[in-house]
Structures are given as structure tokens and as C-alpha cells.
Amino acid sequence: MTRIKRGYIARRRRTKLRLFASSFRGAHSRLTRTMTQQRIRALVSAHRDRGKRKRDFRRLWITRINAVIHEMGVFYSYNKFIHNLYKKQLLLNRKILAQIALLNRSCLYTISNDIKK
After folding, report:
1. What is the pLDDT of residue 6?
2. What's the rounded Cα separation, in Å, for the pair 86 and 15?
3. Is the distance from CB of 66 to CB of 59 less than 8 angstroms?
4. CA 48 to CA 114: how far, in whole Å?
5. Rounded to whole angstroms, how far apart are CA atoms 72 and 33?
6. Burial of 62 (0-12, 13-18, 19+ CB in 10 A)
7. Which of these, 66, 58, 111, 108, lies nearest to 88 by C-alpha position?
8. Are 108 and 72 in contact (CB under 8 A)?
9. Is residue 76 pLDDT above 80, yes or no?
10. Best CA proximity match to 29, nearest among 14, 11, 48
11. Is it the case that residue 59 has pLDDT exceeding 70?
12. Which parts of the chain are coiled coil (predicted)?
């Protein structure tokens, strides 16, 4: 029987895997089996942390808004501020409110005064 040479498909798959894992340290970038495991682990972490990043930014925005509200001497808390925003139908999301709080505090102060009335 003649010798059968393997095709290029497995080599192409491993090459793609090596390109993905080239920045990993140690055996994670050299051995095929550990490269595969680390690739799965990296993709799982990336998927999980995309949701976590959204939660983290929301927490940061809420903290910034709350800090500016307390600093301004407005006599109510963050949740009452947001509640009054919705009651007055001022649809500003937390990201925009946090940017206003950082860059233009007087504008946030006028918004809070308008809401109180």
C-alpha cells in the first residue's frame, strides 16, 4: 500500500489556533492541547466580561451622579432624583447625566431645581 499524506485542513486549524494564542505565556502558546483549552477559557471570559463591563459602567455613572447630587446640597437622594426625572418625563439616561455631572455641574443643578418644582 502506498503512503497517504495528510491534508492541510488540520494544519490550517492549528495555525489559526497558534495565531490566536501567540500572546499567551508558556505552554499556553506552544502546546496544541493547552492552546485549545486556553482559547476556550479566553472566549468564555470575554463573553462573561462584556456583560460585566456594562454593569460596571452603570455603577460608575450612578456613583458619579450620586456624588454630585450630595455635593450640591440637594436634599434628596439619587433614587428620588431619578424618580422625579421619570415623573417629569425628562428622559436622560445615566450615562448622559454622569457626563453632565462631571463637565457642567451647574446644568445638573438647574435640572434638579426644575424637577423639584
Report:
1. 79
2. 54
3. no
4. 40
5. 58
6. middle
7. 111
8. yes
9. no
10. 14
11. yes
12. none
Beta strands per DSSP E along 1-117: none
Residue whose entry in the numeric block shows the C-alpha cell 483549552: 37
End-to-end CA distance of the chain: 93
Domain ranges of the chain: 4-114
Query: What's the CA gap between 64 and 103, in Å, rounded?
Result: 11
At 49 the pLDDT is: 97
User: Within a 10 A sphere around the Cβ of 8, how many other Cβ atoms?
Assistant: 9
Q: Give the model's pLDDT for residue 72.
A: 78
Q: CA 53, CA 56: separation in Å to the nearest integer?
A: 5
- Region 2-31: mean pLDDT is 92
